[in-house]
Design goal:
A hairpin with a 5-residue loop joins strand 1 and strand 2. The two termini are 14 Å apart. The protein contains four helices and two strands. The mean pLDDT is 93. The protein has 167 residues and is mostly helical. It has one domain. 58% of the residues lie in helices and 7% in strands.
């Protein structure tokens, strides 16, 4: 079935998807509030980049901290738009009348988890960068990279395997 032949089916969001959207959104807003509260206390130079060990390897202007929430918001909006159009997604399996609803839901859920994980990770990065700049922390920590990779790839693998198993 070609992309332009796919039917648009209304597959409502699950309670878990809506809950994850709300939780990630509230955490993001809390991160923005935190930045606004500490903005006046931040030094002119804040962490601009962290290496794989979670240590600061570049310092930059405190205005760079605004890039993280901006990128997170733009990415979230972009992914939320595509979340509403599972008929445009790419699928590893052939779609048919028996599996199309499941495949649409599964693909949308994968996008939902990915979208919200990005929002949470960027919020954490913004928060932790401010904390490092204020002297409240030294780095992201050694576990950041492995946890970030796990949070990225475990859900993707889960949803891909689920898609293939439910052809």
């Amino acid at each position: 079935m070609k992309t332009y032949d796919r039917p648009k089916i209304d597959v409502p969001k699950t309670t878990l998807e809506r809950l994850f959207d709300w939780v990630a959104g509230l955490v993001f807003i809390a991160g923005l509030v935190y930045l606004a509260v500490v903005w006046g206390e931040l030094p002119d130079r804040v962490p601009g980049h962290f290496n794989g060990a979670g240590e600061v390897d570049r310092w930059g202007s405190k205005w760079e901290l605004l890039l993280l929430p901006a990128i997170a918001a733009a990415t979230t909006a972009f992914m939320a738009f595509f979340e509403r159009h599972p008929e445009w997604h790419n699928y590893m399996v052939s779609l048919n009348e028996e599996n199309i609803e499941f495949q649409y839901r599964n693909s949308r859920q994968m996008l939902n988890v990915t979208k919200n994980m990005i929002l949470l990770v960027f919020t954490f990065l913004s928060w932790q960068s401010a904390r490092v700049a204020l002297g409240e922390a030294e780095s992201l920590g050694m576990l950041f990279l492995p946890l970030f990779l796990a949070a990225t790839f475990v859900p993707l693998i889960f949803f891909i395997v689920r898609s293939v198993r439910n052809q």
